[in-house]
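cache lookup: miss for this entity combination. No prior model stored, computing from scratch. Input as submitted by user K.M.:
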Amino acid sequence: METVTLTIKNQPELYLEADNITPDAFAGKKAEEIAALHVYIGREQHQLGDFFEVSGGAGATPEETKVVVNGDLSRVKYIGMKMTGGEVVVNSNADMYVGAWMQGGKITVNGNVDAFAGTGMKGGEIVVNGNAGNYLGAAYRGDWRGMADGKITVAGNAGSDLGTFMNGGEIVIGGDVDVHVATHAEGGKIVIKGNAKSRLGGQMVGGEIYVLGNIDVMMPGFAYREDVDIEMDGIKGRFALYEGDLGERHRKRKGQLIYAKLYQQIGA
Amino acid sequence: MAEYLIKNGFVFDPVLGIKGDAADIAIKDGKIVETSAVKNPKVIDAAGKTVMAGGVDVHAHVAGPKVNIGRNFRPEDKLFGYKPKNGIERMQGGFSVPTTIRTGYDYARMGYTTVMEAAMPPLYARHTHEEMRDTPILDQGAYPVFGNNWFVLEYLKNHEIENTAAYIAWLLRATKGYAVKVVNPGGTEAWAWGLNCENIHDPVPYFDITPAQIVKGLIEANEYLGLPHSMHIHANNLGTPGNYQTTLDTFKLSEGIKPNSKFGRDQVMHHTHVQFHSYGGEGFNFESKAPEIMDYVNTHDNITIDLGCVTLDETTTMTADGPFEHHLTELNHLKWANADVELETAAGVVPFVYSANNKANAVQWCIGLELALLAKDFTRVFLTTDHPNAGPFIRYPRIMKWLMSEEARKQQFDAFKHKDKVIDATNLAGIDRELDLYEIAQMTRAGPAKSLGLAHMYGGLAPGLEADVAVFDFNPNEPYAPDDIEKAFSNAEHLFKAGVQVVRDHNIASNGNKRTLWVNAKVNENPQVMRDVKEKFLRYYTVTLNNYEVTGHYLPNPYVIEVDATQ
């Protein structure tokens, strides 16, 4: 695997829309060609090389390309957008839309990500070693097609509106989450190792939420069913199972209505 | 103004009767002239290319409040679709509900120069005109909706044609409207009561009038006034399996009524997006009744129709047929917007994904094309998608491809998941007809222009007509693949609008000098109608008359068509 290293040298005055920072856009290119790829600030078009020092070179395909981005990227959006393969390592905080509409490959962020990371994600993996902002793994504004597949792991906390319209895939949060989890979800799995606030699973018709900590307010549309023992992915213990959202229309499978499931840990 | 001579193109023009012969077209002072009348023209070499008049779209939803609801509640429709400003070309965005700027440019790129907004709620006429004003290049007009209007319902209940006509004349003037549009007559008003009108004899709640009375009365009032266009209807029961009977019943309401118009049209009823109204069968087993529908259309000269072809895209449905949009959101469970327009109408908006994997959508696709391929007179059958309901207007060239190439239709059949079931429910697979460009020009130029009563301006290349001329990079005499048709007609090489070159070498070259057409119908003074108008505004409307009428600055470049019905 070949490695391209980008180091930010000029901070943009506003925000940089850098959806070209992907193994897909870099594949088959030398450092000079990569530096000539475009980025936007508002409606103005610039070159990647105006803001980044580019070294190394890309592999022939996205799968053979690793991109390492260094420096303060808190004003850089869309890193790894729509990538299909290869690897991106971000050694900083990053702005919005990291790995949005991602289809394959892996993104590791050694810092925090702002909102909309993994929006409409279809595959691949995002690992955030800091905190995530709002709308992690959610659908784009207005769209009803959220995260479909892939995995997002956040070591720290996540903001609100996590997994909105989620259809598949997995999101694991090491810390706490803000309000609105898996709103409108029809599938997928969300694991919250810390505490949750309220409005978990509003209008959710399929999929699973696991909460290991506290839930401040349970949605009235979720009903307690039974206590169950769970052992999966290093999680082990006794959980209370709730089903919902009872106020919604639910699909049937073999004559049985399918509900979204919410598990809250109640014992070791 | 510059003079132009478009030399040696293969001309397809139903007005002149030219069927692909090489000919020269001359332009001077915004009009088409005899080639001998230009002295020092700029010459456009069109040898090996196709030349047609500018396209005329008789029915599209391109401006006004419900289009804007679609834009507002579908940010995902704009995702990744923006194109930044480039020279004189302004910023563009949106796919199925594009910005006004993209609407103008994309029509121009297809060689279209005149586009009618198919449903203007009178109360929001100002908004509609603001959007049309901001749509570059195209000449436009808008049809106010009348089929659920309380004035109309009250007058027609007692068959008061003269009062209805006086009200129509007043409203066309107040809203700067072009024609009488009817959407789900009575049914949209019934929707305000949570109901619908499911056939033409199903009475409207409270008003005690039937859709049949509304339709017939509005045809008679339209002919009393002698308006340029006929009554333009979207009948009851749109989209319901078995609805073809309601469509035929609606068609029959035009029987025995003769056109009274000095504008050269022959029809008294235009039925729009007939694809949605040609279904037999029940539930999910619905089937094509296009042959029954076209048997009627082919044998009755006093109606025109447009197709409403499904293009198999993700799109945004929007109509003044409120109950239908509720039905649709119950069907696909996607987001729904619903609006009530006081005494006048209503509207609904729902996104919709027409999929080749869905049998019903594939059957709809077949029906739209069948209607065209079973037609006998292409000056009465027009190509539309009921944009954006059955698909975005940018797909017109794709529909041309399907109509002109059996091979292209076969490719689409092969892409259907339920191919055999679709073939069983339709007739298209057994039709080998391929339309030619002359027939396409009838469906997209001469026909709609005549139906609109605008044959004296648009739709042809005869001297004296507006210099709306399109040149396409397409040689009909050389072998071509089906996709070449779509490519060429999506991307006109040159386009002239009223003598101004708006597309040059496939690029937008000018924002044109768009005009808004409206009809000023003079009628005898009618104190009763004027008293009713004043009273309704005092009692019921949330706005005063002064805040209702569309005045000067909404139409910076109006084109008024005068009609005198005072005799």
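stored under new cache key. Chain B touches chain A through twelve residues (CB under 8 Å).
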